[in-house]
């Protein structure tokens, strides 16, 4: 019995495939050697790429979502009027034999021509912008956590056991004690006077926990980390302002969102009791 041959229908006759790289992109518009070109990652390279694709009447393009290297060329080609789909790398990893950039882009082009690739979900530009701000804020918060751990380490090495007498060394009491200590106050008794009334430990016990051992190297390191902590807090505040400004703009320009926005109640509205009318 002879082998069966299965033919696939061409779905996208004017398709191109792009293998995304960090320093260059390989583009295929067909399966022959002359159908493949390499382009750089500068804007002028994208312009040249667009002209080449239009010259060969390409209308739809598929590319892999490699890191963040795809974002600029993707946005540029979409703005140029091409139908661009972003493909998960798992869909294009079935190529056999020796792997090369040329083979990769031709394989992507072939799969896209046959309609075998599905586009990954991409948020709209507004959602993408909010996501960028949010992810940036999350990264800063992670840096804050690492900085606080270093501060706690240096305090402990100086025999300042702030972590024992307060739950959070960067809480209200902890920040005041650290700031005063860095400003030059080394007396545990004086530092303990920053105790907030909600702290369970007594002022006397806090004073016992804050006995500086005189290590100037750790003191210097703590000052550096404290400056980093304050800087990161400032960055978080600035990011929050940008997010708030963006959300206000989005709500202002969308009537539907305006109707579904809950207005912040004033203090008088929160404390106002409803009147019951008795008949």
UniProtKB/TrEMBL annotation:
- Annotated Transposase IS110-like N-terminal domain ranges read 16-157
**What is any one GO biological process for this UniProt entry?**
DNA transposition
One example GO MF annotation: transposase activity
Q: Which InterPro entries match?
A: Transp_IS110-like_N (IPR002525), Transpos_IS110 (IPR047650)
**Which PANTHER family is this protein grouped with?**
TRANSPOSASE, TRANSPOSASE FOR INSERTION SEQUENCE ELEMENT IS1111A
Any idea what this protein is called?
Transposase IS116/IS110/IS902 family protein
Per the UniProt record, the source organism is hydrothermal vent metagenome
Recall the taxonomic lineage recorded for the source organism: unclassified sequences, metagenomes, ecological metagenomes
